[in-house]
Specification:
- This protein has ten helices and 15 strands.
- By secondary structure, it is an alpha/beta fold.
- It folds into two domains: about 250 residues, 4-Layer Sandwich (Metallo-beta-lactamase, Chain A), CATH 3.60.15.10; about 80 residues, Arc Repressor Mutant, subunit A.
- A seven-stranded mixed beta sheet has the order 1-2-3-4-5-6-7.
- Helix 7 packs antiparallel against helix 8.
- The protein starts with a strand and ends in a 17-residue tail after the last strand.
Length: about 325
């Protein structure tokens, strides 16, 4: 559907409970720019083919493919679309390094994730499923683009009659970029801000060791940008951008309190299953629940609200020193 003049939202299917990821087609003079691409499997490819037919787009009319970030549901069909169109793929250098280390690597990355989660108390039978899930995701990011170009913070892309500034917005991913058109107060915000669901903020075996602190800083920065319409990677378009940011900040403060209260000499997996209804989660969702639990634990350690000890697994508890209570609210340390 057309969500702004000359901008069309393409809803692409996903083979896990999130169900849909949004990509965007932007009219670009006599051609088109694509923002984000979906996961490379047959229903996703069929959705793109239907969109091209509906809008009468020939592959060679695609001028470039811009990625907000390189998670598989956004990066997965970049190579397939680039092969079809000969268009370059543009993304931040941090996300490009993530592609090299994760999607272009061998199976070592899956083993690294499994070993990381093992140290957090995840049972071995679940770790085998994590290995298999990540291997399947890697297959759905191929082929890889042969031409990738760097997009930097504050770079400006002219797309049709609009100028978009690249807004560095890490947290959900380490090199996340949003595209901001100041003249229209319009933002393609990727997964930085979502409605109905919250962006997953995860601590993984790679990358930012305190992604929640990074994300909260990003939210406060995005709060300063005038936005009337935000086009997200999932869920409804956003017309109350600042209000939604405020809700996300409150959500994470509440989750920090929950996490802190659950830490009683317990490991991360035990804390995770107290907070999330893990009996209802797929293995894919459980992986993200674990990563999000770890992000909140790392944040709480960074502000002195928890300490950790390690034997065969890492365990968390509140410190004996009550003076750390002055750090009760996230906003106090940002």
């Amino acid at each position: 559907m057309e969500v702004a003049e000359g901008i069309y939202q393409i809803q692409l299917p996903l083979p896990f409970p999130l169900k849909i990821v949004h990509a965007y087609l932007l009219r670009d003079g006599d051609g088109w720019t694509i923002v984000d691409t979906g996961l490379n499997y047959s229903p996703g490819r069929a959705a793109w083919s239907a969109a091209f037919e509906h809008y009468n787009i020939e592959p060679q009319a695609i001028r470039r493919i811009v990625l907000t970030h390189a998670h598989p549901d956004h990066y997965g069909m970049a190579g397939w679309l680039a092969d079809m169109s000969a268009a370059p793929v543009l993304l931040s250098p941090i996300e490009r390094a993530f592609v090299d280390a994760t999607w272009m690597a061998t199976g070592d990355q899956e083993h690294a994730v499994a070993n990381f989660f093992r140290g957090c108390g995840v049972p071995d039978e679940l770790l085998e499923v994590v290995d298999a899930d990540l291997s399947a995701l890697r297959a759905m990011t191929q082929p890889h683009p042969t031409v990738m170009q760097d997009l930097l913070e504050d770079d400006v892309l002219t797309i049709g009659n609009r100028q978009f500034r690249m807004v560095f917005s890490p947290g959900h991913s380490d090199g996340h970029l949003a595209l901001y058109c100041e003249a229209e107060r319009l933002m393609l915000c990727g997964d930085a801000v979502l409605v109905k669901i919250t962006p997953n903020i995860g601590r993984w075996s790679w990358g930012d060791v305190n992604p929640l602190a990074t994300f909260l800083t990003t939210l406060h920065y995005l709060r300063t940008i005038p936005v009337d319409l935000a086009l997200p990677g999932h869920g409804p378009i956003i017309t109350q951008f600042h209000e939604r940011i405020d809700q996300l900040i409150v959500h994470h403060e509440e989750r920090l309190i929950q996490t802190e209260q659950a830490a009683d000499g317990t490991n991360a997996y035990q804390i995770c299953i107290q907070i999330f209804p893990t009996h209802d989660l797929t293995s894919h969702q459980l992986r993200f629940a674990m990563a999000e639990t770890l992000a909140h634990l790392e944040y709480l350690i960074s502000v002195g609200r928890l300490v950790q000890s390690e034997d065969s697994v890492i365990r968390y508890q509140r410190p004996a020193n009550d003076t750390i209570m002055r750090y009760r609210h996230s906003y106090d340390v940002l």
